[in-house]
Amino acid sequence: MGELKQFKLPDVGEGLTEADIIKWHVQPGDVVEVNQTILEIETAKAVVELPCPFEGTVTELLVEENTTVDVGVPIITVDVGGEAVAPPPAEPGAQEPGMAGSIAPKVDPTAPAAQKRVPVLVGYGVKPGSTTRRQRKTSSSSVRSEAAAPAQAPAPVLAPVPAPAPAGGAVPAANGGGARVAVLAKPPVRKLAKDLGVDLTTIAGTGPQGSITRDDIHQAAAAPAAPARLAPVPVPVRSTGQREERIPIRGVRKHTAAAMVQSAFTAPHVTEWLQVDVTETMNAAKRLRDLPDFEGVKVSPLLLVAKALLLAARRHPMINATWDEAAQEIVVKHYVHLGIAAATERGLIVPKIREAQDLSLPDLARAFGELAATARAGKASPQDLSDGTLTITNVGVFGVDAGTPILTPGESAILAFGQIRDMPWVHEGEIKIRKVTTLALSFDHRVVDGELGSAVLRDVGAMLEDPMRMLAWS
After folding, report:
1. What angle do the packed helices 450-465 and 279-289 form, to 10 degrees?
2. 284 or 240: whose pLDDT is higher?
3. What amino acid positions are annotated as catalytic residues?
4. Is the CB of residue 336 less than 8 Å from the CB of residue 320?
């Protein structure tokens, strides 16, 4: 057998600590090349295709699909050919910079430069220190055993363990006899249980496929001691068809929940509402669709709402600012990365139109189309979802008039665009049926006071009421 290398789950450049394994594109026995996509992972922000850092033959997949894995945990073993090289017993393999998590023996700086170098991956790298893991205390004999069989790295696998037995009882081998209960838990969770003295066989997991999570361990450790069980408890079925169903909190929904809690309890929110007659905006959108410049692109009232907000931000730059708590500064940004909230099967995401302030109306319409297609396909990258400055959420598509949107962390304003309805409206001194919508602007009151927030909302409303103002204020 040649040299076996393990690829650790890397930090894909966003400082993330874990990811979900969504889909493997390779299986044991497949030949892989450098930069070949081997799997899809779902981070807290997006689904990312992960390339392989070296070439060779896949010998083992160390984690299963639909499993949450910490950054730095080995996920695949590849036979790269050549003579097997094991790390010295006292020094576990170190991660080579730029190798996105591959395991390699430490290299003597005085060694010849002719040693084969693994190519650097395309598309991402590992932040220094982001995948550093605490060295486990182990005996030299166990280290030697691990060095001799590198393919047997810790992995979140379904390991059979015995039913509760007297303390000190040995755990039988996986193919041994006797009564067993299946326990699904990742290596870090198993270590935590061992450190806290928690018996994994006494816990009903709440994670994916009944796996045991860190929270389960902490709750078990904090609970009063339970009497010994007379029989093993089976892994619970996650969907029983009964009156309750448990859905794992992970990926985009987990990130969104954390971000919303952070925003709601960090930035003092204020929301203002404004009803607007958008009859002329509807007429303008209809006329734009007939222009050659907009051929092949979708023109909707949301396009003009976005243009109005961009112009309002130019007139009132403080609405496009950020509160920097650490530096005790307000950062005013003279560019707009416009976020458009989108509801997808994976949850709420907010992809960005970067440098939106410089786009013409046709280019902005094309950017909207590309953004919508990317969001529907679930292909938004972490970069697409980062560094926003202003956000629009179109709640009107759900048939509601308005809401109190929560700020995206790091931003100072978010505009909610409600449904457009036929309503009686005083127009030119007479009551007529007009197209009316409700705008709701939430803002961070540390940065935006009531006068500024009102001015921005009033300007957006005025441009939607009379789109000619967009030309005058451009």
Report:
1. 60
2. 284
3. 445
4. yes
SS3 265: coil
Q: Which two tokens stand for residue 169?
A: 């009882």
Q: Report how far residue 196's alpha carbon sits from residue 194's, in angstroms, rounded to the nearest whole number.
A: 5
**Is residue 465 within a helix (H) or strand (E), and if so which, with residue range?**
helix 450-465
Q: Give strand pairing partners of 434.
A: 423
**Residue 208, SS3 per DSSP:** helix
Domains in the chain, start-ordered, CATH in brackets? 4-107 (2.40.50.100), 157-162+178-240 (4.10.320.10), 251-473 (3.30.559.10)
β-strand pairing of 37-42 with 56-61: unpaired
Cα–Cα distance, 145 to 152 (Å, whole number): 10
Could you tell me if 17 and 112 are in contact, meaning their C-beta atoms sit under 8 angstroms apart?
no
Closest Cα to residue 275, out of 392, 453, 401? 401
Tokens of 453: 């927030």
Helices and strands per DSSP (H, E), number in the chain: 9, 23
d(CA 98, CA 82) in angstroms, rounded, equals: 22
pLDDT digits (tens, 9 = 90+) for 273-285: 999 999 999 999 9
pTM (predicted TM-score): 0.54
Among 8, 54, 341, CA closest to 187:
8
Give CA torsion, residues 441, 447, 453, 457, to 10 deg: -50
User: What are the C-alpha distances in Å from 48 to residues 13, 168, 252?
Assistant: 11, 44, 12
